[in-house]
Amino acid sequence: MSKFVVSARKYRPIRFDEVVGQQHVSQTLKNALQNDHLAHAFLFCGPRGVGKTTCARILAKVLNCTNRTEDYEPCDECNSCKAFNENASFNITELDAASNNSVEHIRTLVEQVRFQPQQGEYKVFIIDEVHMLSQAAFNAFLKTLEEPPSYAIFILATTEKHKIIPTILSRCQIFDFKRIQVQDTVKHLQGICAEEEIEADKDALHIIGQKADGALRDALSIFDRIVSFSGKKITYDDVITNLNVLDYDYFFKVTDAMLVEDLSSLFLIFDKIQKNGFEADLFINGLAEHFRNVLVCKNEGTLQLLEVSDNLKERYKQQAKIAPISFLLSALNIANECDVNYKMARNKRLHVEMAMVKMAYINRATTLSQSTVVEKKTTDAPVARAKQNASAPIMATQKIVEPTKSEEPPTLTNQVPVTPPTENKASIPVSSPTGKIGLSLSSKYNITSIPKKEDLKSQVNEELAQSNESVSRLNQENLEATWVTYYEKVTSPSVKSVFKHAEVTVIDEDSILIKVGSTMGKGMVQQEYELMNFIRTSLNHPKLILEVEIDATKVVVNNKPKPTKLSTPAEKYNKIIEINPLVEELRKRFDLKMDKDN
Q: Which ranges in 361-518 belong to alpha helices (H)?
């Protein structure tokens, strides 16, 4: 039985041209080799499984290759390349900083830097997961990294660049590796399938590429698992079954059912999804992603954003033709709210089903909303037409209609105009404000009526007077009653106390005055945003203006008016007499004198 080697190791690139999705890095390194402009320290950073360590090994291999190709690739035939392929090269040292992160390990590495290479020109030190080094280890490495020997090359690799101290970053030439695109992953997997004589559906490889989330190593691991499951033939069903992925077909069926308001099909499809072991939150997230893809297909220019196969792109395009944009945007919003509130819902299945019901009736709600707007515009049209016809149409009529001497003068009528038959029967009806007076213009200027400007203005004024039946009820009595009605509904004790002891007064026809005892009370009145609407509606006065003033006599303490401060002896004595009149009689009997009498 032969030893199995996983695809991630078996098909690991050994040349820059074989690196998938990182052409910007490989080409820069090749140009640096060609121009003899190679730095002494590199930092490769990016997500997992995108080729950082692979590019580091290829660069180390090329540096010591004695027979490089014309495009600066390793020859794989010299002693240095063979030693590298067998992991027996003394010129290349790899260190895993995740497990060798102390100062002692870095000191050992620095000791090795002192020794020149036995074969070749360079000694290459590859430190993987360099962000795991301790602070002391970084500090011990600084001097060597800044001024290494001419034969030493350092290649650092990390997935978390933000954890590396700035003094290390400033000493390295930084290369940012990108996530592998789904199309590049699929192309690479197709090449492996051809090498291994495996028949695979392109849709199945797309699912693997999407599940890998930009990491080629993860894609190869998933590929090996699928091959172990299905053998030499990989189908779409095998992939979604093994990876526990929701089939795209479910989302297409759900969207079709929503567009025709078929609730029964929606509930049955969702029930089938749950019976297959899929959680409701996974379904709602997938449905939101589906709506996004359909929305993307509304424009040909954004089709490239879809990371799916050509067959699925065609299905998305077909559904995008029948799904309105208003439906897609509203459905995305509902799906997002459902996902946000999913964890707090007790009955999670009902929570998702209610979201689906809302999505199913989006088109009906949109239609009702549009019809309401149209009806409102139609209702308001006569008044607007009357205002417009009161000025502009008269001048236009006077300009166009100019009877000749041989024609009879025009007459007014309240009947629908009837134009006598002429050679040219083209007529232009003009509506009056009330819709009763008609005006018809023929090519011979035969008209039945021309309304006068004064008549139109009087009709407009009559209509406006009839439409404004509300009469202002503004007076002091009604204002006080309205004020009491409002503050009795206030729930805040402090606000209610201020309103209760405030004084309201009618100033003129369009304004009222409110007196309060403090600046805080004034702020409370001004922050009652519903107050003005309540007073205007109650008094039938939409243009009413409210003014607020501060009056010290209206100060409230413990829900009671604050007593006025008595500053002089006379004021104090008068207050005492007000409380007890017998004090004045006592003063007179004993002939007492106060300070005010002195």
A: 362-389, 392-400, 453-467, 476-489, 493-500
Higher pLDDT, 487 or 597: 487
What residue type is 509 in one-letter code? Answer: E
pLDDT band, very low/low/confident/very high, at 464 (cuts 50, 70, 90) = low
Residue-wise pLDDT for 255-296, tens only, equals 999 999 899 999 999 999 998 888 899 999 999 999 999 999
Residue 84: count of CB within 10 angstroms of its CB: 24
CATH class entry, domain 476-561: alpha beta
| CATH 1.10.8.60 is held by the domain 182-242 | yes
The CATH class that applies to domain 7-176 reads alpha beta
Domain-by-domain residue ranges, the chain?
7-176, 182-242, 248-360, 378-398+425-467, 476-561, 566-598
Give the global pTM: 0.57
Q: Which of 508, 460, 463, 502 is nearest to 483 (CA)?
A: 502
Other CB atoms within 10 Å distance of the CB of residue 540: 14
Cβ 205 vs Cβ 189: under 8 Å? yes
The DSSP annotation for 169-231 comes to HTTSEEEEPPPPPHHHHHHHHHHHHHHHT-EE-HHHHHHHHHHHTT-HHHHHHHHHHHHHHHT
pLDDT in tens, 189-234: 999 999 888 998 888 899 899 888 889 999 999 999 999 888 888 8
Which one-letter amino acid corresponds to residue 343?
Answer: K
Quote the Cα angle for 51-54-55, to 5°: 85
Asked if 544 contacts 532 with a C-beta cutoff of 8 angstroms, the reply is yes
Q: How far is CA 343 from CA 19, 274, 279, 352, 514, in A?
A: 42, 17, 12, 11, 50
